[in-house]
Every structure is written in C-alpha cells, then in structure tokens.
Amino acid sequence: MGAEKITNTNTNFKWNFIENTLENLKETNLYRGMNELNSAQSAHVNFQGKDLLMLASNSYLDMSNDPQVKIYTKNIIDEYGVGSGGSRLTTGTTSIHKQLESLLAKFKGTEAALVYNTGYMANVGVISTLCSKDAIIFSDELNHASIIDGCRLSQAKIVVYRHNDMNDLEDKIIANPCSRGLIVSDAVFSMDGDIVNLSRVVEIAEKYELFSMIDEAHATGVIGERGLGTVEHYHMDKKPDITMGTLSKAIGSEGGFVCGKEILIEYLKNKSRSFIFSTSLSPAVMASSIKAIELILNEPQRVQALQGNIQYFCQCLRESGIEADSKSSIIPIVIGNEKKVMEISKELFEQGYYISAIRYPTVKKGSARLRVTLMSTHTKEELKRTAQTIGNIVNKYKGVTNELYSTI
C-alpha cells in the first residue's frame, strides 16, 4: 500500500510569515527595492531614461568609469580571460592577484596583504579566524554589519563600547580581562562619516596586549594627504595590527583586502574559511584595482579634488541652513522620520539628484537620514546647486513639523 499524500487545505500557509513581514515593512516605510541604472557608476547616471547627479555612490574617486582603468582592464582580459577558474589555493591565483597584493602592502605600508572576494568576507574571515570562544572582542557600537557578523561567527565574547569613546573602551577592557582579545572599529563610520580615534585605539590595544583592527572601507582613497587612510590622516608612526579595506569604494572595483604582518597573512591563507572556500575574483577585477591604486599614488590631485569638494559642499549646506561638517566623503543629513525621509529622497530624485534614504535597520529607529556621498569629479557648480536644493526641500518639510533636521 503506497504512502498517502499529505496535503494542506491552506496551500499558502508556509508563505504567510514572509508575506506578513513584507507587508509590515511597507506599512512602516522600511520596505526596500532596487533602482536599475542604465549607465556606468559615475558622477552622472541614467535612471529610467533620466540623467541624475549621483550623490549616493561609494565610488568616491570615480575610478569605476576612469578611462585609464578601463583600458588597462581590457588589456588584462585579453591576456588572462574573464574568470579565475578556482579558489586561490587551487588554480585561482594568477600573477595579477600577486601583483595587486604586493601593491596593497606598499600602499598601506605593511609587510603583506591578502585579497578577499568582498569586504564583508574579509571582515567575517579575519575576525572569525583570529577569535574563538576563549577570546573577547571589543567592538564599537556603530561598527559595520560585516564586523558584527564576524564577531558573532567567531563565538567569542563580544563587548560593545560606546561610539568612539576611548574611556568607555578602556573601562570595559579592565572589567573584562582576557588572555586573547581584539579591538575592532570602522575607520570612517559608514553612516555618520566620522573618523575613529585611531591613535588611542592602538595605544590601548598595546597597553592591554590586544590585537587592534580597523576597517578602512570608507577611508582608503579619501582621508590622509595622499588618500592612504587613517594612519596618514593622524600622522602616526605606529600602525594597527590589522588593516582591512575594500576595493569597491574609492578604488572603484570589487573585493576586500587585509594588510598586516606576513605571519598574519600566512595564517589567514591557511585558516580563513571565507578565503579558502571561495573562487577567486577574476584577473579583470584585480587589474582594475591595480590601475586605480597606481593612479591614487601617482596623481594625488584626485584625492585633493575630493577633499576640496567635501569642504565646499559642507560650506554650501551651511549657507542653505543645514549644519554640516565632515572630513570624509559621507555627509549624513538626519531627518528622523522614515516616511518623511522617503518623501524628501523621492522629491530629490524628481529634481535630478540621486540621494538615498537610509532607514532602520541600517541606522537606529528614529534616525532616518539622507546619506550624501561625494565624488572627486563633481563640479563646484553641481555641489552648490545640490546643497541649495536639499536646503529648500528639507527646510520646507521642517516648516510643517517639529522634527530635527541636521547633519551628525
């Protein structure tokens, strides 16, 4: 006798929680969708047949559309093809991969470097490899999700300290003594745009014999006289033990990287699961990163143009009635209410400005914001016009509500 087929009279029952969750997101103005672009990621993009000034991209130096980067990448494709064919420890390492890692080590002033497939995989891989159940991780409360997930995956004890508060960090280290530990922080915080107190992080880590690690995703190519990052920004001689970063932001390509002592890199090659079990990035992606880093090193005026744009745009915002001050390319304008920030972002889109609305869970509830990010190739005229438009729209909404509008 055959087994009876089990049927459920409500065939959609198993999907109900998904449907309900999506409906709840829509009702609370937290539902997310994707905007399909029909052009290169650059200072101007084509969206739904309309030219928009891009002010939400992390391609801070406009490298993803740079002619020199594209020509060099095309030449590497002709020689190496479009795929790597395997993981880095099998067949997926080419001379282009090694060239990029050597250049990254030179760029960050370390003994060695290792490329991961994404910045997310780099953070998850490094933290979960260095730390385990017997370790304690001291993590800034505003760290990126990839750091948080790496901490969780490690199964170490996680102690969260107040944002960029070095006194609170040290107090919590004293209250949680350990024989093996890590202090980890963003270098430039991705939603607020402020910069870690790196000298104190390194000093405290050395004092208590902890590893120090910073995520320079939004610092590389942006801060420091030559765009070398946080160490250069603070004119430090002593570096953190681990410098992580991405190739997908100012460098305009794809991937993540880790720089540090050679012994660290060798350890990660042999123990880091997100590195070992991933097919490597293509030689074409490696090539685009190589050329972009060379341009940053050889043409410092690109970084200087970005830093000049940051200062000028903040000045224009202040003249338009919005307090603003940032040393990074991230300039948040806090609206507070999720519905209002969506309305403002939509109005900016309609007027030709691509500026994203950032909401929970990316930021805390009630701190929804416009997240403006600048490129080195934005013109002064474009930035002034943008600041005036933002000021007009935001102040219009401010006139009908008691909510606070400001930058952090």
UniProtKB/TrEMBL annotation:
<dbReference type="InterPro" id="IPR015422">
    <property type="entry name" value="PyrdxlP-dep_Trfase_small"/>
</dbReference>
<dbReference type="InterPro" id="IPR004723">
    <property type="entry name" value="AONS_Archaea/Proteobacteria"/>
</dbReference>
<dbReference type="InterPro" id="IPR015421">
    <property type="entry name" value="PyrdxlP-dep_Trfase_major"/>
</dbReference>
<dbReference type="GO" id="GO:0030170">
    <property type="term" value="F:pyridoxal phosphate binding"/>
</dbReference>
<dbReference type="GO" id="GO:0008710">
    <property type="term" value="F:8-amino-7-oxononanoate synthase activity"/>
</dbReference>
<comment type="pathway">
    <text>Cofactor biosynthesis; biotin biosynthesis.</text>
</comment>
<dbReference type="Pfam" id="PF00155">
    <property type="entry name" value="Aminotran_1_2"/>
</dbReference>
<feature type="domain" description="Aminotransferase class I/classII large">
    <location>
        <begin position="51"/>
        <end position="390"/>
    </location>
</feature>
<protein>
    <recommendedName>
        <fullName>8-amino-7-ketopelargonate synthase</fullName>
        <ecNumber>2.3.1.47</ecNumber>
    </recommendedName>
</protein>
<comment type="subunit">
    <text>Homodimer.</text>
</comment>
<comment type="function">
    <text>Catalyzes the decarboxylative condensation of pimeloyl-[acyl-carrier protein] and L-alanine to produce 8-amino-7-oxononanoate (AON), [acyl-carrier protein], and carbon dioxide.</text>
</comment>
<keyword id="KW-0808">Transferase</keyword>
<dbReference type="InterPro" id="IPR015424">
    <property type="entry name" value="PyrdxlP-dep_Trfase"/>
</dbReference>
<dbReference type="InterPro" id="IPR001917">
    <property type="entry name" value="Aminotrans_II_pyridoxalP_BS"/>
</dbReference>
<keyword id="KW-0093">Biotin biosynthesis</keyword>
<dbReference type="InterPro" id="IPR050087">
    <property type="entry name" value="AON_synthase_class-II"/>
</dbReference>
<keyword id="KW-0663">Pyridoxal phosphate</keyword>
<comment type="similarity">
    <text>Belongs to the class-II pyridoxal-phosphate-dependent aminotransferase family. BioF subfamily.</text>
</comment>
<feature type="modified residue" description="N6-(pyridoxal phosphate)lysine">
    <location>
        <position position="249"/>
    </location>
</feature>
<dbReference type="GO" id="GO:0009102">
    <property type="term" value="P:biotin biosynthetic process"/>
</dbReference>
<dbReference type="InterPro" id="IPR004839">
    <property type="entry name" value="Aminotransferase_I/II_large"/>
</dbReference>
